[in-house]
Amino acid sequence: MALAAAGRVLLQAGSRLGRREVVDGARRFANKRVEVEADEAAGIAVMKLKNPPVNSLSLEFLTEFLISLEKLENNKNFRGVILTSERPGVFSAGLDLMEMYGRNPAHYAEYWRAVQELWLRLYLSNMILVCAINGTSPAGGCLMALTCDHRIMADNPKYTIGLNESQLGIVAPFWFKDNFVNTVGYRTAEHALQLGLLFPPAEALKLGIVDEVVPEDQVHSKAQSVMAQWMAIPDHSRQLTKNMMRKAMADNLIKQREADIQNFVSFISRDSIQKSLHTYLEKLKQKKG
Ligand SMILES: CCCCC/C=C\CCC/C=C/CC(=O)SCCNC(=O)CCNC(=O)[C@H](O)C(C)(C)COP(=O)(O)OP(=O)(O)OC[C@H]1O[C@@H](n2cnc3c(N)ncnc32)[C@H](O)[C@@H]1OP(=O)(O)O
């Protein structure tokens, strides 16, 4: 119920944005920040993140992404989604720092609800989610990948993935942490989260953050072949199994969703945290100069 209500709010927000859907022979639809190549006959869609320059998860991006995902969820012909970046090199730079810096509490609350919604929708999706990680994927970008059923990363040592929040002076919330612990185990998570480590593909593979590392030009074809393997499993048994594995963790967030929002708002509003974000943003700018 809570999920459905929040979904309606996002859909309303989406229509307020007034984005016109572009339909190309019923095989492709796009809003400004997400491109969907939908092969209805095959039952597979490729969702490409396209929020330049670095696919940060801004409120507008989250709204558009959730609307696209819901369209696919509502069409029973779609059984699988491949998530990837339209801009190879960066899968996603994670949460949009500008949504968490210098704004008011109401904005922080709205933003955090949308972040929660993204995680819940992806984590509990009935569809098969394969992540084709064709670039760097820190923090919220890594979290998106962690919700998927299978992760394939491009073998480029320049790319990294992990939950680096502590390096920014912020803290990964409990549900980021739970998702990470369930993927890599407690000790690895404890170590990596405290240090805010980002891992190149080979290390990410060793730790189980990703399931496969393949040459960069094969990420997409590999994702398609993995998807074919997963599609061979009957939906009902796979979905019931997925739900059995994931429901308790998702319910843990659902039951304390409002408290988690309040927690985020008071944490992110602190002067000391705003100062840390300011310093980090300055560092990002200086890197350029
Ligand atoms: C105890 C109670 C706890 C409760 C706490 C609750 C919650 C708090 C935790 C909240 C969780 C947050 C999770 C996150 O996702 S935080 C975001 C983490 N992301 C990063 O650290 C990535 C930062 N970016 C980079 O490292 C690089 O940009 C890059 C992704 C490696 C790409 O590098 P490059 O291609 O060289 O691009 P630039 O660095 O030049 O960036 C271009 C442009 O984009 C801006 N930018 C980059 N990342 C972000 C971002 N995440 N959000 C907003 N903007 C971003 C960057 O500043 C440049 O802007 P300008 O062109 O204007 O200079």
UniProtKB/TrEMBL annotation:
Reaction catalysed by this enzyme: (3Z)-decenoyl-CoA = (2E)-decenoyl-CoA; (2E)-tetradecenoyl-CoA = (3Z)-tetradecenoyl-CoA; (3Z)-octenoyl-CoA = (2E)-octenoyl-CoA; a (3E)-enoyl-CoA = a 4-saturated (2E)-enoyl-CoA
Gene Ontology annotations of biological process type: fatty acid beta-oxidation
Molecular function terms, GO-annotated: delta(3)-delta(2)-enoyl-CoA isomerase activity
Name of the protein in its database record: Enoyl-CoA delta isomerase 1, mitochondrial
Secreted keyword on record: no
Gene this protein is translated from: Eci1
Pathway where it operates: Lipid metabolism; fatty acid beta-oxidation
Listed InterPro entries: ClpP/crotonase-like_dom_sf, Enoyl-CoA_hydra/iso
The keyword RNA-binding is assigned to this record: no
Subunit structure, as described in the record: Homotrimer.
The organism's place on the tree of life at top rank: Eukaryota
Chief place of localization: mitochondrion
Function: Key enzyme of fatty acid beta-oxidation. Able to isomerize both 3-cis (3Z) and 3-trans (3E) double bonds into the 2-trans (2E) form in a range of enoyl-CoA species, with a preference for (3Z)-enoyl-CoAs over (3E)-enoyl-CoAs. The catalytic efficiency of this enzyme is not affected by the fatty acyl chain length.
Record keywords: Acetylation, Fatty acid metabolism, Isomerase, Lipid metabolism, Mitochondrion, Transit peptide
Family: Belongs to the enoyl-CoA hydratase/isomerase family.
GO cellular component terms, semicolon-separated: mitochondrial matrix
Source organism: Nannospalax galili (Northern Israeli blind subterranean mole rat)
Entry EC number(s): 5.3.3.8
Location within or outside the cell: Mitochondrion matrix
CDD domains: crotonase-like
